[in-house]
Hints:
This protein has about 150 residues and is an alpha+beta fold. It has helices spanning about 5-15, 25-40, 75, 90-110, 135-140, and strands at about 50-55, 60-70, 115-120, 125-130.
Amino acid sequence: MNSNLPCLDKLDYLLSVTKTVLPQKLKNKLKELNNLRNWLCHGFSYKTTLLLEPKEGEENTYNEIDSEDNIDWLKKFPNTKFSPIKELNSKDGEKALIIVLEILIILAEALNQPFHIVSYYGENPIHNTIYKDTNIEDIINPKNTLPNKA
Length: 150
């Protein structure tokens, strides 16, 4: 396989070899995540119109009253509902992680090969094996991640 292929093409190839079909909704979410990743890594220009009000007692300083982007973010991310780029937050990160984990579960089953991931909460590593029965919620919100302090 060509190592210069885009990520989505590599995934399509792996799935085709195993005769596995990625659910269309998940494929659409992955495309949106890939677009967001590209915009964050390579830049993405858009315009924002601001309604500003001079800040009392401070020269050349303004309070933002309202803003509007020339991008309809809901149309850009209809499946994932990612926040606008300037408002991305931990919930968006969780959405991205869920998409990746869902795909890893499908790949693990298709390839009959589990994946091992390590998450860190402070200095405490949490080891998970990704396979067809993996509960994503247990990975995203692990219980007992910190040692008991007596």
